[in-house]
Amino acid sequence: MNNWAPGTLAVGRVKFFSRHRGEVNSSAFSPDCQTLLTASEDGCVYGWKTRSGHLLWRLGGHTGPVKFCRFSPDGRLFASTSCDRTIRLWDVAETKCLQVLKGHQRSVETVSFSPDSKQLASGGWDKRVILWEVQSGQMLRHLVGHQDSIQSSDFAPSSDCLATGSWDSTIRIWDLRARTPEIFYQKLEGHSGNISCLCYSASGLLASGSWDKTIHIWKPSTRSLLVQLKGHATWVKSIAFSPSGLQLASAGYSHMVKVWDCNTGKCIETLTGVLDVAHACVFTPDGKLLVSGAAD
What we know:
Pfam family, one: WD40
Protein name: WD repeat domain 38
WD repeats: 17-58, 59-100, 101-142, 143-177, 188-228, 229-270
CATH architecture of the largest domain: 7 Propeller
Order of helices and strands: EEEEEEEEEEEEEEEEEEEEEEEEEEEE
CATH class of the largest domain: Mainly Beta
Number of helices: 0
CATH topology of the largest domain: Methylamine Dehydrogenase, Chain H
Keywords: Repeat, WD repeat
Shape: globular
Strand order of the largest sheet: 3-4-5-6
Strand content: over 45%
Number of strands: 28
Structural class: mainly beta
Number of domains: 2
Organism: Rousettus aegyptiacus
Distance between the termini: 16 Å
């Protein structure tokens, strides 16, 4: 975990979460940053106290490796996805599974909550995006258009649009306001590899990280590429806008974490040497940068 302020990126506290029984595929911080969620190859989802590293829970249920995990924006739920083709919705307070969502035909690689925590989007190796109602677990609609596996997703701040990224090297932005079976989408092209992570800013800009080792910042309303960020030596695993939207943090599939100026496209800070692989980065409301990952 790292404290960040403009001009100074320095290691603050480092905690080790070492009771996994398999490789960690994904991790996510709760909205208040007090809890760290980890998805493991051992088929379980783990919850940890961010500050102390204390293990809160180890939850089984999936019958295959857990690929991805994410908290709901209201902090009351989290979702996990798996090679077993399901999504599990969990209650944080009760640490119990509320719903098992079935509909995908292959491994589920990504999941996102809408800003109001009422809808869920999932995607995976079957090339389909499925929208779900969180409360009932009901499947609302399928979004079909990608030519390869879907690996990343994020809702726009307005909830009107959903962005998805794929191994087909494109980003699709789906207009969810349409109530027709055929949903209109925009296609953003420019990457030359898998779109491994997506993140909207509070103002509606969209950042995309890729296996081509670059990050693009887009203005979706005009389908225009605003800036391209280059500097990672490996594919980009995680990205996060600062609360102001003026900076972007990125974690490569390596020990390198960077902070960028979104206006100039310049890297203003680099942190190395703490983690072997950085999985997730997020800014806290008070401007600190938290990073989680794997270290031997």
